[in-house]
What we know:
By secondary structure, this protein is an alpha+beta fold. The chain has helices at residues 46-63, 100-105, 134-139, 145-168, 218-221, 227-244, and strands at 8-9, 13-17, 23-28, 31-34, 39-42, 70-75, 78-82, 85-86, 89-96, 112-122, 131-132, 171-182, 188-191, 199-203. The chain folds into two domains: 8-82, Phosphorylase Kinase, domain 1 (2-Layer Sandwich); 85-226, ATP-grasp fold, B domain (D-amino Acid Aminotransferase, Chain A, domain 1, 2-Layer Sandwich), CATH 3.30.470.
Amino acid sequence: MSAHTKLYEGKAKIIYPTDDPQIFLAVFKDDATAFNAQKRGSIQGKGAINCSISSKLFQELEARGIKTHFIDSPAPNQMRIEAVKILPLEVVVRNIAAGSLCQQTGLALGTVLKQPLVEFYYKNDQLGDPLLTRDRLFLMELATVEQVNKITHLALQINEFLKEFFQQCDITLVDFKLEFGLNSQQELLLADEISPDTCRLWDIAAGNDPNRRVLDKDRFRRDLGNVEDAYQEVLRRVLKAVERE
């Protein structure tokens, strides 16, 4: 790890510079937050688990032609990544109604959407990461029309792969959050992480039991217990699915 001071510390990761200005080191933390960091805690081993899951999924996506910031993983909780400037957008893809979609629309939890829904949120903790219309997004100059169109296309492609991949893990992909960044060549790369922190994942074997099926951060949000076990289980199934390929 570089002796330099950290570049950035978020809720889930610390980003350090390296000797190469084009490469950063992301260190995944065990800290857990929910409700815009109003609820805080720690999930033992979460950093290493999320880093491992993200590393595997980034490699799977790269193999399918989707460019990511992933380079390699020098330690269980560390990821070397291409240096990118993150766009201040959280891109949420939904397959099944849950969370804020239910709260804001009245749709029943578990309603299967006729087609995937891609939503953009302003990545700003002080404002509570509000949902954006496309017009507001462009008004605020958070991304260009071309970037938004490309992100939407990529998000749907990633969704198709992840849905199929998690299906092989006997997991239903309910929804998930993505972030994108621009590298030094102004190329758009998938960044951040894909893990039980950023996805809603339901265990198919648990059927419709609203508590038992949860294999993601909702276990922490909703005080369901067994958070570490759920995260470990996702990692176990992901590794098994990758081995089979």
